[in-house]
Amino acid sequence: MNYLEASRAQAERLRGKEHVRILALETSCDETAAAVIQDGRKILSNVVFSQIDLHELYGGVVPEIASRAHMEACDRILDEALSRAGMTLEETDALAVTYGPGLVGALLTGVNCMKGLAYAAGKPLIPVNHIEGHVSANFLTHPELEPPFLCLVVSGGHSHLVEVEDYGVYRQLGQTVDDAAGEAFDKAARVLGLPYPGGPRIDALAEEGNPDYLQLPRPKLEGRYDVSFSGIKTAFLNAVHGMEQRGEKLPKADLAASFRSAVCGQLAEKTERLLKDRQAEGKKPVMALAGGVSANRELRRRMEDLCGKLGVKLYLPRIDLCTDNGAMIGAAAYYQLQQGRIAGLELNAEPALRFV
Ligand code: KG4
Ligand code: ZN
């Protein structure tokens, strides 16, 4: 029996097992992260090693530095995840790894590391889509949440409104026609001279600022639930450059607040439209948020207000599970294992892997 056949037989047996514990690794960007997750819902350990210090100097993630740093950190972070869970590798039931989307070198480091471990330990290997991982962070935060639900996915590289019809089954309803929300935040932060990653810095600054200081455009889009951030970004850039040319001191908090308000306003507006459409069809929608930008304070407040007003149940991921981590990969992996979606040793990194 070859490795994949043996893994399939094991995966079949695991479906009937009372508790399934998965060791997961995430290395798609600039976090080397590992976790042990039980039954897709319970975090036994969650270790995140951020490389921000290494990339800050360059104002963004340098792919080559990221790959090397992952390579150096992988073993240590996996060991730490196991020891914090009080387990050995042999005691885990399966392994999981992010195989896309992301930086090719960074992904390859993780994929190769886990292929080697899975083969050596004779465990099934579950290949996880990073964005599905973000959505699954909600399963860790809310044990009662089950599909179907609507989800606003807003990360550094993605912005989607989707329906999670079942575990691992997504239907796209809307998306960004240009930049991702996180990308827009990072670019605006760079214009204000804030260090990488800019999203959280803009968010913190904005708490002290006036959101009505700068009027930013509201894009007109064909897609009913689509969003666009490039017009907002360009208008913001032009305004800031104009002030700099006139030698004016930048009111950074007011600028940050204005930008944040324009981005979050658009996300909330499209979500409101979707929820109201569903209610008009007589449905009872359930809403969730996912991805790094779901840590944004204004976005969370707006979603809480909106869902409160419409009487819609809202699920927000725990703040530390919004940005990249291994726990979310372990949660997504559990449901894939139930469906028998495991990988053979030919598994490769897929930097442009699609979500929907
Ligand atoms: O989901 P994530 O960790 O990585 C990707 O899969 O892309 O998202 C990272 C993105 C970055 O663009 C970061 O600036 C943004 O999420 N982000 C935030 C906040 N925290 C992280 N953006 C706005 N407000 C925040 N509080
Ligand atoms: Zn991410």
Q: Keywords for this structure?
A:
five-stranded mixed sheet; 45% helix; alpha/beta; 2 domains; globular; Nucleotidyltransferase, domain 5; binds 5'-O-[(R)-(carboxyoxy)(hydroxy)phosphoryl]adenosine; 356 residues
What does this structure look like?
- It contains eleven helices and ten strands.
- The chain is an alpha/beta fold and 356 residues long.
- The mean pLDDT is 97.
- The strands form two sheets. A five-stranded mixed beta sheet has the order 3-2-1-4-5, sandwiched between helices.
- 50% of the residues are buried.
- The site of 5'-O-[(R)-(carboxyoxy)(hydroxy)phosphoryl]adenosine has 21 residues, from α5, α6 and α7.
- Residues 130, 134, 155, 292, 324 line the site of zinc ion.
Helix and strand composition category: alpha/beta
What coarse outline follows from CA principal-axis ratios? globular
What Rg is obtained from the alpha carbons, in whole angstroms? Answer: 21 Å
Strand order of the largest sheet: 3-2-1-4-5
> Considering the protein shown, what is the CATH homologous superfamily of the largest domain?
ATPase, nucleotide binding domain
* Relative helix content: 40-55%
Estimate nothing, just give the exact number of structural domains: 2
